[in-house]
Amino acid sequence: MTDYLYHYTSIENLTLILKNRTIKFNNLQNVDDPEEAETGDIETAGRHCLVSCWTDKEENVIPMWSMYTPDMKGVRIKMRKYPFKQYVYGKNELHFKEETKSYINYKDEYAKIVSIVPSFPLLEKIEYTRDESLIKPKILTRTEREISLSFYHIGRCKRSCWDFQQEYRYIIRTAPWSIKELDEAVTPEEHELIFNRIKDKNNTQFCNEIYLELAEDTLDDMEILLAPKTSEAEWVIVQALLDKYCPNTHIQLDKSRIRVR
């Protein structure tokens, strides 16, 4: 896998990335493929997964411009893998029992709504398949002794018709309970009571979006490619954004060589 990934988006979203130094993660319920939030057993489970979608395809292609930039007038940004700011939490800080590093800001508002393990986001290469059990995975396992949930397969697979994307995706999987609540649950009945929040359509313990901060040096090797239909005026706008928000950083700016009417 390459050390860099590419993300197609609008000039408006580029503005927010440069101004706020953040990358947005979207809830699976809001991505372009409506099947992605569906599972084989719990209808509402997909809303507890958030993603940021990229590709390792160095060549810029018409389908990506067409689908992910407005009227093919947006940008494609190039960033190194895992461009996010890393936080270090000391032993006994917050809920941590030992020193822990994470890209998750546990002092931000989203971390007060849901639980997220420190290893997120994970970077996954999307698997394209015709296997319905992978496209709509079952996440609940029940035995006589215990009930367990696994969100591992949510957001990892798409139908083969999407394989032109060659997608890599950062994934944050969340849970509508606290670590303390889960630790204190002992019996299958107690676990089921907590897990039922996943099934509850009225439960509001999920995030529609999460923003992860970028590391301070992330923009040092960032590149921006303008879409095929970008006008000279829009080039000027993007250059002005770079001058305003990245005055001390040289970011390579170019325009796609694809020609379309």
Give the overall shape. Answer: globular
Q: Termini distance? A: 34 Å
What fraction of residues sit in β-strands? 25-35%
Number of helices in the DSSP assignment: 7
Q: Find the structural class using helix and strand composition.
A: alpha+beta
Order of helices and strands: EHEEHEEEHEEHEEEEHHEEHE
User: What's the overall average pLDDT, rounded?
Assistant: 92
Annotation, overall tally of beta strands: 15
SSE arrangement:
Elements (H helix, E strand, L loop, with lengths): L3 E6 L1 H10 L1 E6 L21 E7 L6 H7 L6 E6 L6 E3 L10 E3 L7 H4 L8 E4 L1 E3 L2 H4 L4 E3 L4 E3 L7 E3 L7 E7 L5 H6 L3 H12 L9 E5 L9 E4 L5 H14 L6 E4 L6
Parallel strand pairs: 8-11, 14-15
Antiparallel strand pairs: 1-4, 2-3, 2-13, 3-12, 4-14, 5-6, 7-12, 9-10
Helix pairs in contact: 1-7
Task: Note down, in words, how this protein is organized.
This protein has 261 residues and is α+β, with helices and mostly antiparallel strands. The chain is built from 7 helices and 15 strands. A 5-stranded antiparallel β-sheet has the order 7-12-3-2-13, covered by helices on one side. The longest helix has 14 residues, at 232-245.
